[in-house]
Amino acid sequence: MNMGKIVAIAYNTFRESIRDKILTGVLLFVALIIISSVATVQLTVGQWMRLTTDVGLGSISLFGVLLAVFLGISLVFKEIDRKTVYTIVSKPVRRSQFLAGKYIGLLLTIVVNAALMLLVLLATLAYVSRQEQNPYLGIFQAWLLMLSEFMLVTAVAVFFSTFSSPVLSAMFSIGIWIIGHLLSDIRFWGEKSMSEAVRIATDVIYYVMPNLELLNVRSRVTYHIPIGWDYVGWTSAYAMAYTLMILVAAAFIFSRRDFK
Amino acid sequence: MGNDVISIEHASKTFRTGFLYRKVEAVRDVTFSVEEGDIFGFLGPNGAGKTTTIKMLMGLIFPTGGTLSIFGRPHTDIASRAALGYAPEQPYFYEYLTGSEFLDYYGQLFGVPSAERRRRIPLLFEMVGLRNCADLALRRYSKGMLQRIGIAQALVNDPRLLVLDEPMSGLDPIGRREIRDLILALKKRGKTIFFSTHILPDVEMICDRVAIIVKGELRRLGRIDEFAELESEETEVCFRGLSAEAIGKLSGETGAPVVRGTLAYFSLPSRDRAQSFIGEGQAGGGSLVSLTPRRRSLEDVFMSEARK
Ligand SMILES: Nc1ncnc2c1ncn2[C@@H]1O[C@H](COP(=O)(O)OP(=O)(O)O)[C@@H](O)[C@H]1O
Ligand SMILES: [Mg+2]
Question: What's the whole-model pTM score?
Answer without folding.
Answer: 0.87
